[in-house]
Amino acid sequence: MQQQFYKDAISASIFNYISKASQELGIKSYVIGGFVRDYLLERGTAKDVDVVAVGSGIELAQKVAELLPTKPKVQVFKTYGTAMLRYKDLEVEFVGARKESVSYTHLTLPTIYSV
User: How big is the CA angle at 44 (ends 38 and 50), to the nearest 5 degrees?
Assistant: First the structure.
C-alpha cells in the first residue's frame, strides 16, 4: 500500500531510464537527498535529483545518457566519483555508494572509499 504512495514521486520519464540502466548494469540505485526531502515535505517539484548506485555512479550516469533520446553530455568528477547530466528541466547527479573520512587535524578534502 505505502509503495503506491511514492509512485507519483518517480513518475517522470528520467526514472524509467535510471531503472533500465541500473538493470542493464546489474546494480541497485536509489533516489536520495533533496528530491526525497522536498517530496515528503510537499515542497513542489524538484529540479535536481540525486541518485546513489551500489556500484559506479559514473558508469550508471554514462549508461543513462546512452539510453536517453537526447544523449546528454555527462560531466564526470573523478575526485569524488560522481557524475552529472541534464535532461529536460532536471539536473541529475550520480554517486557510487561510499564512505568518507576527514582528518580533523588537517581539515582538508575528505578521503573517499568505495563500498
Answer: 45
DSSP 57-101: HHHHHHHHHHHSTT-PPPEEETTTTEEEEEETTEEEEEEE-EEEE
Q: What is the pLDDT of residues 49-108, one digit of tens each?
A: 999 999 999 999 999 999 999 999 999 998 888 999 999 999 999 999 876 666 666 666
Whole-angstrom Cα distance, residue 22 to residue 47? 21
Go through the domains of the chain in sequence order and give each one's CATH number: 2-114 (3.30.460.10)
Inter-residue contact 31 to 10 (CB < 8 Å): yes
- Residue 77 CB neighbour total at 10 angstroms: 13
- Specify which residues 77 forms β-bridges with: 82
pTM: 0.81
> Kind and range of the H or E element at 34?
helix 34-40
Q: Give CA–CA dist 18/25, Å, rounded.
A: 11
